[in-house]
Amino acid sequence: MDATILGALEVDQTGSIANWAIPFAEGKYLPGMGGAMDLVGGARKVIAILQHCDKQGGSKILRTCSLPLTGRGVVSTIITELAVFRVDSEGLVLEELTEDMTVEELRSVTDAEFRVPPGGPRRYDTGA
């Protein structure tokens, strides 16, 4: 399989993904794996799509995932409503950014560290 696109609960700056267990009580998780582990293990390219922040406003793009992992270091691209990141051997690279946000504003809502390419990220209009 060349590529798979998955929703995620969390993704970290090393390309690890957590998408199969939701915490519902202290130390307890509601499982819902489906075939996600098979998909991330069998695809050459894994694209994670998720909201940038959780309902409490915390970043879902983390330095290290806090939930049980679906795959370690498997994600190559992260897409949120605010930005698109490429994952390489050194971490995250900001490839695209919504036109109504600055890089500094994105850093303030992103737990993970990321680099900005020379010339900056491509900008896009969300249509909002």
From TrEMBL:
Keywords: Transferase. InterPro entries: CoA_trans_fam_I (IPR004165), NagB/RpiA_transferase-like (IPR037171). It is an enzyme of class 2 (transferase). The keyword Transferase applies. One of its GO terms (molecular function) is succinyl-CoA:3-oxo-acid CoA-transferase activity. SUPFAM superfamilies: NagB/RpiA/CoA transferase-like. Gene3D superfamilies: Glutaconate Coenzyme A-transferase (3.40.1080.10). Its EC number is 2.8.3.5. This is Succinyl-CoA:3-ketoacid coenzyme A transferase subunit B. It comes from bioreactor metagenome.
